[in-house]
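--- STAGE predict ---
source: upstream dedup step, 1 unique chain passed
mode: sequence only
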Amino acid sequence: MNNLEKSGSKISRTARFGFRATLQQEALLRKAAKITGRNITQFVLTSACEAAENALYDQKIFFTDDESFQAFEDILERPAQIKPKLRKFMKSPTPWDK
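--- STAGE serialize ---
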């Protein structure tokens, strides 16, 4: 999380980003920034860095032995199981949609 730590420190920032948002997006970001105790710039920058790191982590290649890979494939190929509590949770409205 090096990039995230740097975003709140006294390191000189020379790069500049500019983007447009809808009024609803701005309100959502400002509300989230406020409840996390950050200003809008800190919140957006930290959130963007987290998303960027996650996107990069998702692209990592991993290696394993044949037996472990076969076990992994077997799990992926199993039929999906219906989980009633998960289904109920996924159908419930999100806090920002209420």
